[in-house]
Amino acid sequence: MAQVERFSYDNAIVRKFAYATIIFGVVGILVGLIAALQLVFPTLNLGIPYTTFGRIRPLHTNAAIFAFVGNGIFMGVYYSLQRLLKTRMFSKGLSEFHFWGWQAIILAAAITLPLGITSAKEYAELEWPIDLAIAAVWVAFGINMFGTILKRREQHLYVAIWFYIATWVTVTVLHIGNNLELPVHLWKSYPVFAGVQDALIQWWYGHNAVAFFLTTPYLGLMYYYLPKAANRPVYSYKLSIIHFWALIFIYIWAGPHHLLYTSLPDWAQSLGTVFSVMLIAPSWGGMLNGLLTLRGAWDRVRQDPILKFMVVAVTAYGMSTFEGPMLSIKSVNAISHYTDWTIGHVHIGTLGWNGFLTFGILYWLIPRLFNTKLHSLKLANAHFWIGTLGILFYAIPLYWAGWTQSLMWKQFTPDGFLQYGNFLETVTQIIPMYGLRALGGTLYVAGYFVMVYNLIKTIQAGSFIGDEAAEAPPASTWAAHHGKEHWHRWIERRPVQMLIAATIAILIGGMVEIFPMAMIDDQVPRIESVTPYTPLELEGRDIYIREGCLGCHSQMVRPFRSETERYGEYSKSGEFIYDRPFLWGSKRTGPDLHRVGGKYPHSWHYNHMYEPQSTSPGSIMPPYPWLLRDELNTSNTAAKIRALQTLGTPYPEGYDQIAVEDLQKQAKIVADNLRKDGIDDDKLEEKEIIAVIAYLQRLGTDIKPKPQAGN
Amino acid sequence: MFKHILESAGNINWMAISALITFAVIFMVSVVLVFKHNPAYIDRMASMPLDDSYPVNSENDNHEK
To answer: Domain for residue B47, yes or no?
Structure first.
């Protein structure tokens, strides 16, 4: 039994991911800071398309989630996986491909999102060629991880690895499910599902992207690095097993809590609520398991910044997993949804849980990779306090803003009129809070730079250990413990069983919710008067998508008196059957637009889009002067019609041939109407704004009674 | 066929119930499995992250003050 094998751990790949994490953290936070400042100072949109809020916001979310947290996951996994399995990574080539492939995808995102190339699905905005690249890189990661698991020297898979496996499986399923789309050309596609069904799939994805990209892999990291940093075993390994299975099973059901009070059928909403509330149990089990791992070590927490970061991270996890289920209760959601409350909630998660855990891991890991001590504990402590203050300054004003605005939306005068009938009033009221939030972001990023300096100093002082020597008994010694079973069957069985069991656990929820919606036509009652978009409206809609208007505008009037008074008839599921993708949105920085059709004359929109403050003094909507300047590109209109026909939109046979002609006819009508109001421009009918106006004027009018004389 | 079964279900309450039953089963199985493990195994797993074979780390594990 004295027989041991010598091998080495690959630290070079860990270092690469660590550097990428550090760099993209800065990028993600700074872009977020710009977006936050734009809401206070709209001139920071800079008057050019690429930097307006609607395009910057997805850049921020994608950078934070997939570039910062993504690289953070890979850094943490590549380090811990090798050590927990007592083996080197399976394939150097796959590790490299994974690393460079992922960075290339980030680069592609950083280029395409500002260009307005987006599928409009939150956290899945990237267009189909990049989706394919993500799939390839993700599969490479999977092969590398399972290859490593199969050649391991440690017989048992530690719970962290279970979380990694569940993450891998679920992200695979989610990525495929939410990106089923039909390409129109290289940079444009339409989703296979429309309207309500598309919404359900999107939020099944969106919620679980949070669950299986921001949560489960980080729980795996917590179960490895927290015991490491505290130098204590996990408080209860039994609890961690129950935590794992309960969490991954329940999580997948909770998606519909993003769609409460929308046109989604009630049964689906109820399932979302029930499972969201149940989520508290496993989430808090995990949090307590993390915190109790530190039992008896609290004196060290006071001195060790690494443990401090981790304690706040786990506490933030506990807070957001308590708040999440609360926000899923319908009566709370009625207040919170579409407001900044949600933004505050997710930032407790990302800044607190993901950010702070990543910082803790970096402070722990970098000195070990470089065989040295952290340059300065003082600076790390300073970072901790500045960062914590940053989170508070970020979140508290947003909670305040959310509550204030929501109450203002719902406030009626004693005579039964809306107290704040002008939506803008409810916006200007909370701008000071937006200012404080930007201050919070500034603090957070300042702390981040302190860390970058500290880590650079540490790296300079140390010498990198690229291949770290290790030794362990070979796997062949396992047979001794399990005489009745041949050793290699034993190794191969466990991880594969784990994979299959995890897949089943996560598939059940998705299937029960999505299958009936996708397969039963009755779930979406048809409405006779709802017809497909005209080619001009369709092009306008695609501009709406390109500009990211849905980052600020919802298109979903909920069945509350405060909303029907403000916007009009509440939204019906049958109205969205031609919406590919659905554009319900998730945040009302501006008013809902589902019933905006016919509310204003064309010329109002023309002026408003050129300079929102001209029609709405004090507005924080960015100006879109290029829509008035640029000519509408109709070269893809026919292809778009054909793609939609393939997906089932009932345009007449051969309509693609005459679509552009129809488009021009309608454009002429819109332009003539503008001219009547004294607006003229060279080739007015060929401008993008014409399509946008046509689309806005169409919105929600299908079920409006036609205006009658004398009404 | 499948479509027909789903449609005839009318109100989809059975789904919520079957979901809860599935959860209860998964939960119970995991609890039973957990308690069937012997304590030595559990202890070993709980301290697995700490069990590094290389010397540099074990020295560094006691964080400097």
So the answer is: yes
The token duo for A368 is 């070990």
Tell me if A284 sits within 8 A of A318, measured CB to CB.
Answer: yes
Mean pLDDT value of segment A32-50: 95
B21 inside 8 A of chain A by CB: no
pLDDT band at B24 (very low <50, low <70, confident <90, very high): confident
pTM: 0.93
The structural architecture, per CATH, of the domain A7-155 is Up-down Bundle (1.20)
Q: Which amino acid, one-letter code, is at B18?
A: S
Q: Do A84 and B48 touch (CB under 8 A)?
A: yes
Mean pLDDT, chain A, whole residue set = 93
Substitution target in B11, B26, B29, B64 with the highest count of A β-carbons within 10 Å is: B26
> Which among A291, A428, A449 has a CA at the least distance from the CA of A383?
A449
The parent domain of residue B35 ranges over 23-53
Residue of A nearest to B25 (CA): A246
> Which parts of A475-632 are beta strand (E)?
none
Q: What residue has token string 């009674």?
A: A705
What does the alpha-carbon distance between residue A286 and residue A283 come to, in Å, rounded to a whole number?
5
Q: Does residue B12 belong to the interface with chain A, where contact is any CB pair within 8 Å?
A: yes
Q: What is the pLDDT of residues A390-440, one digit of tens each?
A: 999 999 999 999 999 999 999 999 999 999 999 999 999 999 999 999 999
In whole angstroms, give the CA distance from residue A390 to residue A633: 44
> In this predicted complex, what is the ipTM?
0.74
Give the residue from A597, A593, A598 showing the smallest Cα distance to A557. A593
Say whether A278 and B57 touch across the interface (CB within 8 A): no
Which CATH number applies to A535-698? 1.10.760.10
Q: What is the CA radius of gyration of chain B?
A: 24
Given a cut of 70, whether residue B6 has pLDDT beyond it is no
Quote the tokens at residue A33.
């800071």
Domains contained in chain B, number: 1
- In chain A, where does the domain assigned CATH 1.10.760.10 lie? 535-698
Model confidence at A484, pLDDT cuts 50, 70, 90, reads low
